[in-house]
Amino acid sequence: MLAGSALVLAAALAVANGHVRDTLPGQTVTAAYCDISNGTSEDAVLVAVGTPVASSVELHETRNEAGMVRMRRLDRIVVPAGSTVRLRPGGMHLMLFDADTAGIHEAAFVFEFGGGQTTRGAFEIRPP
After folding, report:
1. Gap between the Cα atoms of 102 and 50, Å rounded
2. pLDDT in tens, the chain (128 residues)
3. Measured distance CA(63)–CA(47) in Å, rounded
4. For the chain, is the Cβ count within 10 Å smaller at the N or the C terminus?
């Protein structure tokens, strides 16, 4: 029964509207954005993201602190039950390190949630 519940939860987590800012020549760090929906009755906790177009992906947040815009790494992003969290410029987002998006139009991403659930998304590569 538990395995069946995990399948239902995984099917109810979805990633949509994903896009990556293409890197400029000589640049290897970029950002990605998307909507993460949780159609379940329990909060989902995003703990990691991976893609073959970057050696690592970090969860980040941009905040205005005392008049200074600062970016900080997040350990997790909570997607409340029955809601959608939007990763956008100026807020929560994904940072891609050692990224190589040259000549491609789409990249696959895997989102890992607490409890072992995963979901996938296809991200469009957009001009910077």
Report:
1. 18
2. 344 444 444 458 999 999 999 998 899 999 999 999 999 999 999 999 999 999 999 999 999 888 899 999 999 999 999 999 999 999 999 999 999 998 899 999 999 999 999 999 999 999 98
3. 20
4. N
Residues in the chain: 128
Residue 95's contacts (CB-CB under 8 Å, 6 or more residues apart) are: 29, 30, 31, 57, 58, 60, 71
- Separation between Cα atoms, residue 88 and residue 70, nearest integer Å: 15
**Domain, as residue range, for 31:** 2-126
Residue type, 42: E
Using the structure block, give the residue that is written with the tokens 């600062």. 70
CA distance 13 to 30: 25
CATH of the domain at 80: 2.60.40.1890
pTM for the full predicted model: 0.89
